[in-house]
Amino acid sequence: MTDPTASGIADETPAPPHGYTPDKDAYLKRMRRIEGQVRGIARMIEDDTYCIDVLTQVSAVTKALQAVSIGLVEDHLGHCVVSAARSSEAEGAAKVKEAADAISRLVRS
After folding, report:
1. CATH label of the domain that carries residue 62
2. Which pTM does this prediction carry?
3. Which of 95, 93, 34, 36 is closest to 69 using CA atoms?
4. Mean per-residue pLDDT for 80-87?
5. Spatial separation of the C-alpha atoms in residues 47 and 44, rounded to whole Å
6. Is 13 a domain residue?
7. Are 26 and 19 spatial neighbours (Cβ–Cβ below 8 Å)?
8. CA gap 96, 101 in Å, rounded
9. How far apart are CA 51 and CA 66, in angstroms?
10. Does the residue 67 lie in any domain?
């Protein structure tokens, strides 16, 4: 197969606006699953479920949200930060600072 850019025709497909955009459907599916888990925890509390069982489910939701967060951080670094760094050193530094601040918030939570 030949390279389409070799003929002088540039690929005009715009870059996605966010790093997670290519995986948006998967992220939404995961978030809907987490939403269901949270509703389940609320039902457990309404039904006076044993404390440890509720805490176990809270832990599962927390881990699921952490997994989503890690994926978003990876996507942000690989897309937004890299793109900004290619644009200019100042933009790259600003995006790195923004990412570091976001990671700091995640670690504290």
Report:
1. 1.20.58.1000
2. 0.73
3. 34
4. 92
5. 5
6. no
7. no
8. 9
9. 22
10. yes
Indicate whether 9 pLDDT > 60.
no
Q: For residue 62, tell me if it sits in a domain.
A: yes
Q: By C-alpha distance, which of 12, 33, 31 is closest to 20?
A: 31
pLDDT tens digits along 28-72: 999 999 999 999 999 999 999 999 999 999 999 999 999 999 999
80 token code pair: 């937004």
Contact yes or no for 27/20 (Cβ under 8 A): yes
Cα–Cα distances (Å) from 33 to 2, 39, 56, 64, in that order, read 43, 10, 16, 9
7 found inside a domain: no
Whole-number CA gyration radius for the chain: 20
Amino acid letter, residue 51: C
């976001």: which residue's tokens? 102
